[in-house]
Every structure is written in C-alpha cells, then in structure tokens.
Amino acid sequence: MSTVRRVFFYILALVTLGILATGLWNLLSLSLDTILARFTLAQIGDIKPKLSLGIAMVVIGGPLWFLFWGAIQRHAEREVDEAGSTLRAFFLNIILIVSAFLVSMTLEVLLNWMMSGFSSDQFSPGSTATLIVSAIIWYFYWRISEKEAYPTAVAKTVRRWYIYILSISGLIWLSFGLVQILNAAFISFPIWQGEVIRSSFWNNGTRSNIAWVLVGGLVWAFYWFYSARNDVNSSLRQVYFYLLTILGGAIAGLAALTYTCYRILYWLLGGDRDVAGYFQFLGWAIPTILVAGCIWYYHLRVAEEESTGEQRQLSARRVHYYLMSFLGLGTLIAGLIVILGIPLDWVINTLKSEAIVLESDWWNNHLSLGIAMLAVSIPIWLLYWSRILDSTERGGIDERSARSRRIYLYVIIGASVVMLAADLVNIVYQVLNGILTGDLGAETLRNMQWSLQTVFIAVPVLIYHLQIARQDQKLGSEVAVVRKNVTLLVADKKSPLVSLVEQKLGYKVRTAQYAGETTGGLPALSDEDIDRLVSQVTAATTRDVMLVLLEGHSMVLPYK
Fold this sequence. Notes:
The chain is mainly alpha-helical. Helices cover about 75% and strands about 5% of the residues. β1 (about 485-490), α17 (about 495-505) and β2 (about 510-515) form a beta-alpha-beta unit. The two termini are about 35 Å apart.
C-alpha cells in the first residue's frame, strides 16, 4: 500500500471510529438515564432528537468504520511492511493512549460514586457510557496490537512510548492519591480543632483520592509489571528510569524535605509562632518525602538489577551518580545565592538616603530558606561527588571519557558561562545607565543585586569544573574515536564478550547470532587477545568490519 493511500485509509478509519463511538456513547447515556427514570415528562421530548442522532451515527459510522478498518486489516495480514508501518503504529497507540486515559478518568468517577453509597442523584450516565465505550475500543485495539507484536523497530519504539506514558501516569495518580489521603487524615486530627474549618474525613475529596489510588495502582501495575516486563534493554526504559522515576522521585522528595526544613527554621528563628495551624504542612510534606523516597529507591534497585554485565551496571551507576550530583549542586548553588542576598540587602538598605521601615524579621525568610537548601544539598552533593571522584581514580581514561561525565561537565560549564554573560551585561548596563543619568546609588545596586549574587557563585563553580574538564582533556578523554560498522558474530548474543568488546572499542556494535550448530564454543580470550582484535578492527581499511568469535577461533573480516 502506498503512503498516500495508507494515510487516506487510516484517517477515514479514525474519523468513522469517532462517529461510531460518539453514537454508541449517546445511546448508552440515554439508556442509563431511562433505566434510572431520570427524565421528567417535560424532558421526554428532548430524548427523541438525541436518540435519532445516536442511531444515525451508529448506522452510518459503524459500516463505514468496518469497511475502512477491514481493508486496513487485510493489507496488514498480507504484507509485513504494512503491519510494521510507522503510521499503523501511531494509529494503534494514539487510540490506545486516548482510550486508556478516558477509561482511567471515568473509572475514577464510577468508583467515587460507588463509595458514596450508589446514590442515584450522583450517578453520571455520561461518564459511565464513556467508560464502557472507551473500554471496548481499548480492548479491541489492544488485542490487535498484542497479536501483531510490532514487527519493526519503529513500531516497537512507538509502542514503548504508549507503555511508559501510561506507566508514569499511573504512578503519578497513585502517588498523588496516597499523599492527599494521608494529608486529609493528618489535618483531621483533633489537635487542629478551632484552627481550621473541618468537615468529615469521609468526604468527596477523600473518596476521589482513594479512587485515584485504585486507578493509578491498577494502571501502573498493568503497564509496568505486564506490558513492560520484557522490555529490558530499550533506551526509552532508561529514560523512564533515570529521568522520570529516579530523578523525578529525588526532586519531589528533596523539594518536600527542603520546604520542611525551611518552615521549621523559619519558626525557630522567630517566625510565625502559631503552632496549632503552622505545622499543618507536615500533612503533605512528610508523605511526599516517604512516597517519593520509595519510588526513587525501588526504581533505582530495578535499574541496577536489569543492568546485567559489569559494564552495564557501571554505566547505570554512573548515570545515577551524575544525576544526583547535579541535583545536589544545583540546590547548593541556589542556597548560596539566597544567603548571599542577605548582606547585599543590608548594604543596599543602609545606603538609601530616605527613611525606610523594615520588618524586624526581614532576614528570617531568606536565611531560613538558604540554610534549608544547604542542609539538604551539601550532604547529597558531597556523597555523590566523592563517589564520582573515587570511580574516576579507579576507572582512569575510560571513566573520564564516559558520555554521562562529558554531558555533566559541559552542561555545568555552559550554564555558568551563560549565567555570567547575562549577569555581566546587566551589571555593566546598570553602572553605565547610573553614570549617564546621574543616579548612581542604592537603586542601581538594587537593580543588579541578583546579578552580583549569581556572579559571586558562578565564577568559582565555572573555574572548578573547567579545571576538571581541562584535566580530562589532557589525559585524552576528548580524543575522537573512529567508529566503524562492526558486526560481532557469536553463538550467544548474551555473552559477556559482547560488552567487553564494546568497552574496548568505545562504542556499540551490532551483534548477530550464528544459526548453525557449534561445538567449540566461544574462544578463551585474554585481555591482550581482545586488545589485538580491537586493534585489527581499528586498523581495518574498510568501514564495515565483521568480528567472528566462533568454534574456539576469532578473526576480523573487513568487507564492502
């Protein structure tokens, strides 16, 4: 099927599916309203147009969708390229994502209604009809997608997006619901009586949060433990681990911990002394720390367990170290900037000629926030940065050349340079503008206060990391690796020799598994033997090289 024809059929299949689904929703909604006898005599006349529209949409949309989808399926069954086309993968997974979200949203409404005592007044026929129609659509296309198993790499990638989008969504719903339930229980304690207007703990909000816990747990369990169970080596799974769950959990937990420290310090330093109502924030802060910590720990352990092989485990551990170090360093810099603003504020206020009235605890807020940031960030940064330094000493040039290390250093250096450039521009501008206008004084200093604060912090950060980057360069970390298209032919793709060869080459290789019978097994290769083979691959006169490790023998075969 040509691309234009494929687009034509899939667009029409999508449009007619929407017509059919809307018609079914209309009929189901009317049926549920009729069953519950919710129509008055005056409203019966309004049923007929809706009923007619629903029947018309089903009668027209159903056969058209059956026609176009049937044509698509016949082509997919006959042609492998059609079954694995990118457009088909997008079509299936967009429908699965949308229908899954609709099922989740409406299931929460239904569960809330059930927990409220099955009250007919609170029943939503529209939401229930949406749940039924969306569930049917999702199950229909999910069965098709599971049966086809996505025969191409692009189709598998699109499917992974669907799985991990729903997986992280379910985890967020589950986590948010747990925190809100614990928070509601905390502020319902008798100690808050007289301080807040309290209602019954068992209210609509609590029921909604419990429903989200059930829905989120179900969605996350299905997509994480079932749909993603065999997807171990994909890059998107690593993004899910390190950027969404591990880093996301760390950010959420540390933000809640920092806020908790800030509020406690502010109170200790003479801030709000209203104990009865002041500490209600602990109701959400502590559950957030605990839930985020569990998410961070669980996914970190799973990521390390799945990183089979010494090199993969080392890479996973390295990524985690640099992410946590980056998070700690960023919070540390922010805390120093906030604290540095306190003496600058004092100097600026002293230089002002007009009389000003300052609150007695004007410094309390900034000092509490700055100390809280430092108290949380310094142990984290020192812990992970010391581990990075130790691994660098042990790993030598291989560790210094790691991509995660290069990204970490250049992101910090680049951000520092941009920050310094912006700050210096503002400082020079404010000074020149003050000189030219004859108003060079406290107000000019006020306008460039944040620039002065960030300059004092960004300069040592830039110098320190620039020295590290230059030291790495002198030791050869930036030496470009001439990549070749290497195909490694082995009897077992899971052999540790694969990762060892990749480590020596410095880049990934394509592995091919020998389909014939072997008796000699893998050759017994020492580090010197592997170094010799890698040297032969690097010295090959062609870009395409096959490295054969079979029957107790090894050979390098350049080819065109």
